[in-house]
Design a protein that fits this description.
elongated, mainly alpha, about 70% helix, about 160 residues
Length: about 160
Amino acid sequence: METTSLYVMRLEEAAWGASLIASTMVMHGIGMLTTLRATTALKMRVEGSQSLVLASGPLVLGAWMITLVHLVEIGVWAGFFHWKALLPNASTCYAFALMTYTTLGSEYYLPLDWRLLQGMLAMVGLMTFAWSTGVLLTLADGFQKRQIALWSRGKGTDAAK
């Protein structure tokens, strides 16, 4: 006769999950504001240029910074998993956190008494990606409006400038 383990959510697990989500959202907020500040500063520096390459700089910088923010957030979750020895090693913890955060799924699973965190990690990943998408769309909209304005004034953008 086969027995299956019954999952029962624990207060400790829920508390750690809530703390990790709160930490992730605070980090993300700081990261998105820092991204907007840095890209605005760069945009002001390249404002007079008609070069498409220079004009796309703030958008590229923003994408890099957003990616870095996500990787750091994933690292915090992976660090928690490693600290609690929930997976074999730090590398596996990071790979698991990355795959779960992006909602791709992983071949690994947390121990049964920590499974709630898998879903919570995917949920916070969805929330932060939505926020990042909003920031990236803001940057892309500014870039596109600038380029359209240049084109409409007959000052076509030259990528070689």
